[in-house]
Design a protein that fits this description.
alpha+beta; Arc Repressor Mutant, subunit A
């Protein structure tokens, strides 16, 4: 919840947060990649997973907005953003367009949703797990203790 500290007025419950720990990743982005990321952040649903489906239709829309001749440039930029650690590729056969915006950089949601994102480090790698309810998160944490 966002509250104006001077008036006590509730301004809103939805927000986007930016985390400065990994800001260097943003500095490596090209102008086109920054524009794509901004559009993705605007379009991502308020969810604990911080994911977006980059369908051909959405890519074409982004290409038009940015002024690119082909939406294939969007696809190439997405792949570079994965390599730079800004996006995570979650595409599968069942869900061929799913990407996750690195929640260390941006997270769109509320504090409750953010609390259900668990970030762990193993073998020098960071793993992000998102849960859509407390019970699923608790079950996962309990399984780690066993």
């Amino acid at each position: 919840m966002v509250i104006d500290i001077l008036t006590g007025e509730i301004i809103g419950e939805r927000f986007a947060k930016m985390f400065f720990e990994d800001i260097g990743k943003l500095l490596s982005l090209t102008k086109v990649e920054i524009n794509i990321l901004i559009l993705m952040i605007k379009d991502v649903d308020f969810n604990a997973e911080n994911t977006i489906n980059m369908t051909p239709k959405r890519k074409k829309k982004y290409a038009e907005i940015i002024g690119l001749k082909s939406y294939r440039s969007i696809t190439n930029s997405l792949l570079r953003m994965i390599d730079k650690g800004v996006l995570k590729d979650l595409r599968t056969e069942d869900c061929p367009y799913k990407f996750q915006i690195n929640p260390y950089l941006f997270f769109k949601g509320n504090d409750y949703q953010r609390a259900k994102v668990i970030i762990s480090y193993e073998n020098g790698e960071r793993e992000i797990r998102a849960f859509n309810d407390y019970n699923k998160m608790k079950k996962y944490l309990d399984s780690l203790e066993k």
